[in-house]
Each structure stands twice: as structure tokens, then as C-alpha cells.
Amino acid sequence: NGAPNSELDGYDYYIDITSDEFKPQNSYEITIKPGFGDDRNVVREAKTYEVVASNFTPFANFTNEEPYISSVGEIGIRSANLPELNVSVEKLSDQNFRYFLNFNDNSEDLSNFSSKVASKSYKLEGALNEISLNKIKLDFAGAGDGIYKISLNYGKDKSVSKVVYLSDIAINAKLGKDEIFVFANRLGENTMLPNANVKIYGKRNEEIAVGATNDVGVFKFNKKDIYKEISSVVVSLGKEQNFLIIKDGEALNEAKLISQNPSESIDAYTHFASNIIRPNESLKGAIYLRDRDFNPLKNMPVKIKFIDPQGKSSTQITQNTNDVGMINFEKEILSDLSGRFNMQIIYASKVIASVPFYVESFVPNKIKNDIAIDADKFFANELVKVNLTSSYLFGGAASDLAGSMQVSFFDDEYKNSEFKEYKFKNDTLKAAAYPSIENDLTLSKDGKSSQMIDLSFNTKNAPSIIKGVINFNVNDDGKNVSDAKSFTLYPYKDMVGIAASTAFADPNEDVKIRTVVLEMPSQKAVKSNLKFDIKRVSWQYQRDANGYIKWIQTLEDVDSFYKNSGEFSYKFTQSGSYVITATNLVSGASTSLDIDVSGYNYSTLAPTKELSKSQIKLNKSVYKKGDELSADISSAIKEGIALVTLEDAGVKAYKVVKIKNNSANVKFKLDFDFNGRYVSANIYRMTDAGLTPVRAYGKVYANGDKSSRKIELSIEAPKSAKSDENIKISLKTKPKAYVNLFITDVGVLDITSQKPADPLKFFDKILPDGVFDYDIYNMLTNYKVEGKTLSFGGDAAAMAVAAKMAKHASPVDNKNVKTYANLVSLQADDKGEISYEFKTPNGFNGAIRVDAVANDATAMNAVNSEIKVKDDVIIKPSALVYLLKGDELSANLRLINTTNTDKNLTINVASSKNLNIKTQENTNLKPFENKAFVLKISALETGAGEYNVTISDKNGSKTLQNLLDVVSPYTISTYAKS
After folding, report:
1. Which GO terms describe its molecular function (predicted)?
2. What pTM was computed for the model?
3. Domain for residue 632, yes or no?
4. Within this chain, do residues 947 and 897 fall inside the same structural domain, yes or no?
5. Which pLDDT score is estimated for 479?
6. If exposure means fewest CB atoms within 10 Å of the residue's CB, which of 285, 302, 715, 857 is most exposed?
7. What is the pLDDT of residues 40-93, one digit of tens each?
8. Is 463 left (phi over 0), alpha (psi -120 to 50) or beta?
């Protein structure tokens, strides 16, 4: 507050030092240390200044900025160095109350709607630089409940104002999709407000409902989709009246309206035989679809789409669920990519689940594919001729080979180098689901095939251009080789672009908007009449079943008009985030642009409120129909009243109780079906000695007893077995129940740490909170707390899987064996019994896990058993992927005796003609001995090769089959691994 320091003149940067320790007319020594500053100006050596704090500038303000206050309360004022203060009071007229309520509640200026009702000057006491605390009470003649503007006037032209909502009535509302629940109580007493008049107003200022509170201060009204209409609640009793405005994003809790849309009420549990496979192997699994009440999705079509690591749809299938909501699938994944894929489960045109799986392997290419099209740009409804050619790398046509062509489409953004600053994409349009095309084919004698692509599908809602990708795949004797080519599809005859002079403006600033319409495919600018829509962005957030917060964007219409393409100016009068869309109604093309307008209310994001919490302790962990739910309610409030509710998309039951010694107990008889409900507790205390009241709030989930969902299921399987041996499994379950057996090598499951099936755990989810809570208490007190923050983070589970796969690499690359993972679908007989027999793989030594999942219309269950597969002597040669012609190497042949007896063995190696393999012919293995022998291998000719290692003794023999290809050293191959 003193004269500026001449030494600081000319500097652009400064720092404020704020501290309660600074006292007027006191001296302070301030040292600026070396290093202070930025990369342009930095202090090189310490500099010390002496500062004398000046007197407080005369001021007056309110101790609390929140508008609601009890009519029995007082308004606090703090001031300093003021001998006199004038207080003037204006009151909103009754005629303007509903207008203010529904259209002008954000305004702090009541001048156009109010008149002065009181004014008085006061002499203030207090020493120089002393903070004085004073309070005023609106007790003048004619004062009563209402909306007031209080102004503190001092000095020549200084004034500070505050809008006050004066009433002793507190209003609390719970809003569900089809229900409004109102509870009224007093701010000045620990009492409910019975027999009070209640009016519910809509967003167009219309009356939606009129009624009265019951004996405990509750009013309840049901109407379909009332959440879309409601704007405010008014409660009155005699001359007393107060209001509550319902606004998106200002609820106490992060709730989610429970949708009745089938695609949003269905969940899908997936279990794979193995979630890691080789390319060209089949992905085997089962999907179980049920709604939030555990009812199966019976006999309905479900689309399963497979997305490759580049985000492209590789293939899809459509199957109907059976009579217990189950789908078994086996789909060969035709992709030359490796890494993380996703399987999307789509019902009612909505992706209801996305489940990852992994493809890992290496297969050297021996052929090359080529895709030729006449152009790279097309319009909707055209036919595209595609010429496909495949030839061997060593020369010659790949005759008579089977293959396929897949075509996928996805949204892309048009760009033009001459209009770099323009945006040609409408982000407000939802991405359309485009069809995919898949044709099986057989190449001709000269290795060619011609195919047609029909582009006559719906492109109406395309945000910009559409990118098409052709994938040509040829099966070269079990090894797939792919090539891809992309092209552009113009969904509209022209493209609309938009640009602005700024993306961040001030209120009432002239923002220059420029638009251009480019004719396609010439890309020439043409004049067109465009429809402009301006929408304001607002946000809500909701909590999912895991407690995480998700932001939901909504768009509010602000303005709409027509103008020719070109340039014009526009003023945004209110701060916030906006979206401008420009649409050519003739062609259907459109675009959008985001603009932020700064100001006091710039942020449209609703804060995450961390309120004073009430604690709710339940007497059980799970409940069922007929139980008694007992809840102990406690908080920091010693004496008060509590509204306790049972909620599920609305208030199903409620009680109002007295709080004594910080606690109360509430009991509910559950005489209805109970699959889970929220228990909510709102605790209020009165205004003591002029203090504002406080409210504690809490909500917990009472889980339903789901034991009826568990079907009887048991499994009997041997603990151990040998390779190439028949295994018998017996199961016991409910008669006629469906049972899926997943029989898989544990070594494969360990790569991704795949857990045993557990469908009951998956479906035992906490439903979203379907009731929004509103009250006046956040605007009644100045209690502040810090909000929670939702951090970005990676997919920890996916990263863990990636790390494990990096450690183990691909099991196929290292072992050159087929993945052992099978799915078998069975059904129990009339006694609930199942018997199944399978054979362990040749040469397999390890463990096999059998997951059994049983399922009927009302229940599910899963059990598992692990079988150790171990031969007396394990044959383990070095893992070889392939050899080049002319290679000679020494590999290892390891024999492991797993018994406690000596083994005198004869070793015989037989190979195909293109391989020459030699090793030691006889050996003795001590009990549990592990011995390695040299295996000399020569690759004589190119081609598929194999060798069989047979060991024998007096008790019998065992043979291990091994595949080992020999390829040309001149073959060009690419080893691509994601």
C-alpha cells in the first residue's frame, strides 16, 4: 500500500507475500535469495529490503458470501478503519418471485425487480487497524421471508452488496428418474415441517405438482421422466416461504439415472479357454449375458466384433443367445498383427463389454500379396473393383491358394493444406457403426482374384470423411500372409470447414467466425447457405459400480441462425465453454468448433463435493426379503434430526428420527424383493446462537443376498496323468444345466495370469446410485473442503500383462508347439450328472487346468481342478523355430527321470529326409536325474521337416513329435512383433 519502489520499475514479474503475521506500521526485512525468477530474469546474488506495512485501507465486507440464511439468524460484517457505515436493504417483489426463481437465480443485481425497504447509518467503534466484527438482523417493520439485496456503503463511493435468501425453512430434495421426494425442516429448530404447502416448477415456469408435506415433513410425487422437467421446489407455511433450485451438476452425490434401455441394463461375462493364442488359431470362449436383476438375455441376437491392435475391426460374428443367455464361440483370428486385441460384445447397437485377448507368434512369410484399385477416393453408393495378386518370394504365382478379403470402415478427419486453420469434422456427431465386408476366395492358376466392394451403406451421421481399409489375406499352407490398402470415402458431396479468430474469448468480445465449403473431389470453394447452432457445454458426473467418477457432457441450446459461408462476427455474452456447429442442409455435411469464454463463472465443471460425512453401520453384510435392516447412524452432530432413506431409482422407504448424543438407530422391515439398495442418512442441526446450521450426509450400499444365484456344481478329476493318455472327468450339478469345460495348458494361462472362471463375482455388482440429492445447505454455510481428483492413469492390468508377456515372450515362438486350449459344451442329464473323457496331448508335460462353468435360467457357478501331466521320463529337446538350408548346429536333448528308479534307455531319432539328426543311442538315468545330450542337426533341403525322438526300456516306449521347417536362406521375411 506504500509508494512503489523505484528499483522494481520496469520489471514484469513480481511475487505476493501473504501472511497473517504482517501487522500495520511494523517493519519487516525481506531477502530475495539467488535463483529467484524465471529463465529470462534471475537473481544472481541475495538482495535485502526493509518494508514498512501501511495502515489497512478502509474496507467493509460480509463474513459469509453464501446467500441462504435463517430468518432467526444474523448477517456478519467485518470492517477496519471505518467510522461510519450505511446499510441499505432492497427486497424482491412478490410479483417477480417466480421469474427470479426460474430464470434469474444467478443474478446478483436485483435492481430491476426489487425496491428499497430499509436504510440506516451506523457509527462503528474500533481502534486504528483493528478488525471490527458487527452483525445486523433484518428485524425492521415489514421484514419477513424473502429475497433481499443488502448493500454496505462507506466512503465517498464505496459499496459492497450481497443477495440474501431469508427464511427459516430448509428444503431437501431427492430426485430420481420418475420421482421427486421433498423433505422440509426448520433451520432454527430441530423439527420437521408438517402440513406445509409444496409447489414443483418446471423449466418453463409451469407448475408440475402442488401438494403438502405429511406429518414428518415429507412430500412425494411421481411422474415419468420428471428429472427432465423439474427446475425448482417452493415450500411455504403461512407467511414463511423458501425455495430450492434444482441444477445439473449441483447434487450432493455423484449419481446416475438408471436407464431402462436394454443395452444399458445388460452386462456380459466372458471366459476364454485361453486369452492368448497364436495367429490363425481359434479364440474359444463363452459369453454369459444377464440384466441387472440377474435375468438371462434369452434367445436374442448378439454381435461379437474383434478389434486388432490398430483399432481396426478384423472380423465379426452374430449369434443368438440360448435359453439361459449363453453364447459359445470359436473364431479363427485372421490377422497378421500380434499384440493386444479386443473383443467387443454388442447388443441393441451398443457395445456392452470389451474384453482383451492376445495374439503372439512368428511365422516367416513365403509369399507377397498386392492390392490394386482404380482410385483412392470414392463417393457413397459407388462400386469399387479390387484386383488381388499373390506370388511366391522365390518367383511364380501362388496358384489355387485359399484366402479372404476383409474391408473395414472407420471415421477419419478431412484435412486440406490450403485451409490448414479450418476444421472439417463435427465432433458433436456420434460415430456411426459402419458395416464390414468379408469375402472368402480362391486364387486362380496365375495367383489372382477380382472382387467388388459395394459402398451403398448409410453414411448419414459421418462426422467427416470415412476411411476404408482392404485387408487381403492368403493361407500359404497354414501360414497366413496379409497386405492392406486404404482408400477415402466421401459421405457428402462437399465438406464444411470452420475457423475462429480465437479459441478463448472474453464476454462480449467480437469473435470472427470463418467458414468454407469445399466441393468434392475437386476441393474448390463454393458459396453455400449454412445453418449455425451455438450450444453451451455443461457437465455432470456419475459414479460407477466401482466408485470411480465419470464425466458426462451435455449441450444446451443458446442460439441458432442461417448465414452464407464466409466471415461474420459473434459475441458470447456469458462465460463458459461453447460449441459452434455449421451445417449445409442441402448436402448434410457439417463441422464443429470449440470456443471457451472466460469470466467469473467460466468453469462449467461441477465440483466434486466432499461433505461432512455421516457414518452408517449396517447389521448385516447381505440382506434378503423378510430380513430386518438395522442401521446405526452417527456423526459429529450431537443433537438434531435425521432423514434416513432406502433408495433404488427412488425412495422406497424412509424414516425421520431424532439424533441424540451423536447417534440414532433406524430399522426397516424388508417385505419386498431385495437385490440391493442404497441407505442414505441426512443429519441436520438447528441454528444455535445465530450460527448457521450444519448438515452431515452419507450413503452406503446394502448388498442383497445372492446365494440363490449359486447353482450346485462339483468336479471329480484325477490329480495326475501321463501324456497321450485318456482322462475321465465327472461333474455333478442341477439336472439339465448347461456346463462349459475349459481345458487348457497352465503354462499358457500363466503367461497372462489368467484367473479361473468366476461369473458370480462378476455379476455381484453395486448398482449405480439412481437418486440425486439436493439441499440448500451448501449455500447456507461457508464450510469448505477439498474435492477429490480423478487421475489419468494407465491400464494397470494391461501393463502387468504386457510386462509378463515381455518377460516370457511368445510361447509359440519359443516352443513351436500348438497351444493346448479347448472348450467343450455339455448338458447335465436328468440326474444332474455329466461324464466327459479327453486325451492329453502327445509329449505334453506340465499341468492342465479344467474350469467348469454351470449355468441355467436362475443360477450359475464355477469350479476348477488342476491335473499334473508327467511322464516317467520327459523328453525335452531345444526349442527350435526353423532352420535355413545348409545349417549345421548342435542342440540339446534333455532327458529327465521323474521316478525314483534307475532307467536304462535306448534313444532313437527318426527324421524327415530334409533333416539329418544324430545323438547318443543309450544312456542310464539315475532316479530324478536330469541329463543333456548333444543333438547334431543338419538342414539338407528346404521344406517342411519333422523329427521324432523315441526312448524305450524294458517296460515300453515313448515318442515325442517335433516340427522343424527348413527354409531358403534367400527368402525375404519380416519378423514383426507388437
Report:
1. endopeptidase inhibitor activity
2. 0.58
3. no
4. yes
5. 59
6. 857
7. 677 888 889 898 888 888 999 888 778 888 877 778 888 889 989 999 888 888
8. alpha
Write the pLDDT tens digit of every residue in 209-224.
Answer: 999 999 999 999 999 9
Nearby residues of 707 by Cβ (< 8 Å), 6 or more positions away: none
Count CB atoms within 10 A of the CB of residue 864: 16
Final residue of a domain: which of 323, 338, 359?
359
Query: Which residues have CB under 8 Å from 546's CB, separation 6+?
Result: none
Cβ atoms of 354 and 369 within 8 Å: the answer is no
**Same domain assignment for residues 198 and 226:** yes
* Among 280, 262, 732, 639, CA closest to 474: 280
According to DSSP, residue 187 is labeled S
For 759, phi then psi, to 5°, come to -65, -35
Q: Is residue 820 part of a domain?
A: no
Cα 454 to Cα 318, 386, 406, 458, distances in angstroms: 21, 11, 13, 12
Domain check: are 385 and 467 in the same one? Answer: yes
Answer yes or no: do 377 and 475 share one domain: yes
Q: What is the CATH number of the domain that holds 139?
A: 2.60.40
One-letter amino acid for residue 934 of the chain: V
Strand order in the sheet with 915-918: 873-877, 888-897, 930-939, 915-918
Using only C-alpha atoms, the chain has a radius of gyration, in whole angstroms, of 38
CATH number, residue 294: 2.60.40.1930
Q: Give the angle 362-364-368 at the CA atoms, nearest 5°.
A: 130
CB-based contact 549:788 (threshold 8 Å): yes
In 565-627, which ranges are E strands?
567-571, 576-583, 590-597, 615-618, 622-623
Q: What is the pLDDT of residues 294-320, one digit of tens each?
A: 999 999 999 999 999 988 888 899 999
Chunked into runs of 10 residues, the chain (978 residues) has average pLDDT values of 49 69 86 77 85 89 83 82 90 83 64 81 86 80 82 90 89 94 91 94 91 96 93 93 87 72 81 89 94 91 93 90 96 86 93 91 59 90 92 60 91 91 92 85 89 90 92 75 87 94 83 94 92 85 53 83 95 86 94 77 36 76 91 83 92 93 88 90 74 72 92 94 92 96 86 89 86 85 27 37 42 52 94 95 84 96 91 81 86 84 93 93 87 90 92 90 84 43
- C-beta separation of 242 from 716 below 8 A: no
241 belongs to a structural domain: yes
Q: Please answer whether residues 671 and 232 qualify as being in contact, where contact means their C-beta atoms are separated by less than 8 angstroms.
A: no
Domain containing residue 173: CATH number: 2.60.40.10
> Do 80 and 145 share a domain, yes or no?
yes
Give the three-class secondary structure for 886.
coil
Residues 457 and 510 occupy one common structural domain: no
Domain of 208 in residue numbering reads as 168-246
If one counts the domains in the chain, the total is 7
> 609-637: b or e for each residue (b if 16 or more CB lie within 10 Å)?
eebbebbbebeeeebeeebebebebbbeb
Taking the C-alpha atoms of residue 356 and residue 752, their distance in angstroms, rounded to an integer, is 11
Start-to-end CA distance of the chain, whole Å, equals: 64
CB atoms under 10 Å from CB of 667, counted, come to: 11
Count the neighbouring beta carbons within 10 Å of the beta carbon of residue 874: 19
Domain presence at residue 796:
no
Residues 162 and 172 in one domain: no
- Type of residue found at 501: S
User: Comparing C-alpha atoms, which of 4, 14, 153, 151 is closest to residue 84?
Assistant: 153
Which of 115, 144, 166 delimits the end of a domain? 166
3-class DSSP state of 817: coil
Q: Which residue has the cell 459395394?
A: 454
How far apart, in whole angstroms, are the C-alpha atoms of residue 811 and residue 798? 18
Are 450 and 540 found together in one domain? no
Concatenated DSSP letters for 937-972? EEE-SSB--EEEEEEEETTEEEEEEEE-EEE-TT--
CA distance 953 to 729: 31
Cα dist from 969 to 390, 461, 478, 973, whole Å? 21, 52, 21, 10
